């Protein structure tokens, strides 16, 4: 499996949509190539940002009654094909009767009914999507910037590993002037501390913002200010509110050069 194939499976893994065979192949490649872990981190962060705050939306009662009544009618037609098909009913509320539901349960599932069931799944998904659209439009700025960077022709990325096994991956595009980091398994800082990101330019650090990360969680953060050619991206642990001196007060936990 090459890295491109692994990246494609990573998206399905983030959505829990892999078949058992694909999952086994994915896990094997993941163990063999730890340098590809940034794909998993990125996809998990994107999936989490889209899923947070989405409330379950039931389909309208009228739609449910209409579909169930249609299923019942098709079931009766399949059970007695020699009979004249019933005329199209006027579907109205209330909800279907117990007899209708029992008829559906006894149904010998044919392709036609499977198609109707697939349609119902689609309608439910569309109901979910109607709510998700608003959340998608209002995605966090870091997630939007990451998508823009990945679509840029000069997009670049690099991953730095922490001594304890956590990772920080930087994504940047000089044409866009944007940089984003994603973290995985970053240790939680002590109370009264925070993580601070820096652009290091000719040995002069420039603060690029603060972020918080809980143990084991994935975090996506947009760097403040434009990325410039030759920048080095670094992360330090600072007092809450950021470095009081405007310069790092501790050694960086990770350093990621952007120059080749």
UniProtKB/TrEMBL annotation:
The chain crosses the membrane at residues 113-133. Pfam families: RskA_C (PF10099). Residues 77-99 are annotated as: Disordered. It is a single-pass membrane protein. Coiled coil: none annotated. PANTHER family: ANTI-SIGMA-K FACTOR RSKA (PTHR37461). This is Regulator of SigK. It comes from Microbacterium awajiense.
